[in-house]
Amino acid sequence: MVKVGIIGGTGYVGAELIRLLMNHKEVTISGISSVSFSGQDISSIYPSFYNITSLICTDEDAVIEKSDVIFAALPHGLSEHIAKKVLDKNKICIDMGADFRLSDENVYKKWYGKSFDLSELHGSEVYGLPELNRAKIKETKLVANPGCYATSIELALLPLISKGLIEENGIIADSKSGVSGAGRALSQSSHFTDCNESLSAYKIANHRHTPEIEEVLNSASLDKKVKLIFTPHLLPINRGILSTIYTTPKEKIDLVDIHKEFSEFYSTEPFVNVLPLGEIAKINNVRLSNYCQISLHYDEDSNKLILISCIDNMIKGAAGQGIQNMNILLGFDEKEGLNTIAPAF
Description:
This is N-acetyl-gamma-glutamyl-phosphate reductase. GO terms for molecular function: N-acetyl-gamma-glutamyl-phosphate reductase activity; NAD binding; NADP+ binding. The active site is at residue 148. By secondary structure, this protein is an alpha/beta fold. The protein folds into two domains: 2-145 and 318-330, Rossmann fold, CATH 3.40.50.720; 149-311, Dihydrodipicolinate Reductase, domain 2. It contains eleven helices and 14 strands. The strands form two sheets. Strands 3-2-1-4-5-7-6 form a seven-stranded parallel β-sheet, sandwiched between helices. A seven-stranded mixed β-sheet has the order 9-10-8-11-14-13-12. Helix 1 (12-21) crosses helix 11 (319-330) and helix 7 packs parallel to helix 9. The radius of gyration is 20 Å and the shape is globular.
């Protein structure tokens, strides 16, 4: 059995990793760390684990020492030093945060307000979107797990961008996420009375997933001119992302042909489902699963190709995708530990 440790095991992503990894046939959870809850049983923090696991939060060095694979589920700026400790021991690090998602240090500094702490590590990471980088993921020891919004938008646009079928400048992505996307830390915007029975935009024109999406799509683009207008919104639900993406085809299209392009592009992908024409993707169809569901729509009068992309932000947008990357890297069945489908209601 491969021994897996989680640094930052008490946040929402850490808790999802524990829940999913407990059902994984090839691994065992060797330890979890937490600064805030050191010495506490995970079930005292998340009672859903009561009488199921007795994991105790310890310090990060102890977790690294007894693990083969480390998931770093930490806020940005904290994972680089963890990654160095892990890599120095010739072990595998999957960073669930943002420290390795951007390759250009100047871009990172612009959006995150700081330079890389350990520049020598950068360039060795692989961006962990399996549908784009599966072959590279197999060969690395450092995976940069994508952001949740980025995952939903990139998966919807990759078939179009890679074939040069749409105008790359002026793509509009309107995304809505459940409150868990804001993390476990208390904030005014995630208070029940602030978010319940409401819908609000935030970080308009300055969300940090914007440069990540542009970099990834430009890496797959023919023209390298992708520019995105991205506005995220907070939905009064626990989990899930729905992205509505507006694109302009370079030429008049037949939606049947575009649907065929998508279906062929994702024909061998275990976790991306392109819906039949006329169907509309929705969050409930992917909730509690590692699936991405995409639907295609065309407004002939305005020549706009509209994409709807839905994921569970905590699974395909975080913990599930991290485990999918681990499975690829270790040669396991890619779906191991991730075989759940959304509840019927």
